[in-house]
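Friendly challenge for the regulars: who can give me the structure tokens for this chain first? No prize, just bragging rights.
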Amino acid sequence: MKRFTLRLTEAEYIKLKNYCDELHISMNDVVRQLIREWTPTSQTSHHEHS
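First reply, four minutes later:
Bragging rights claimed.
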């Protein structure tokens, strides 16, 4: 997987890291989810909000 550089302040990074720890998910999962939401896919015709 390509490494993405997120331009975050240290405070934002810590906040994101705490968020990941609370939900027991990894930063990579969050980044992948963001990329999935940013990238329009023709696979799904409807948007799913979970």
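The two ends are 25 Å apart (CA to CA). Residues 10-23 form the longest helix (14 residues). Your move, everyone else.
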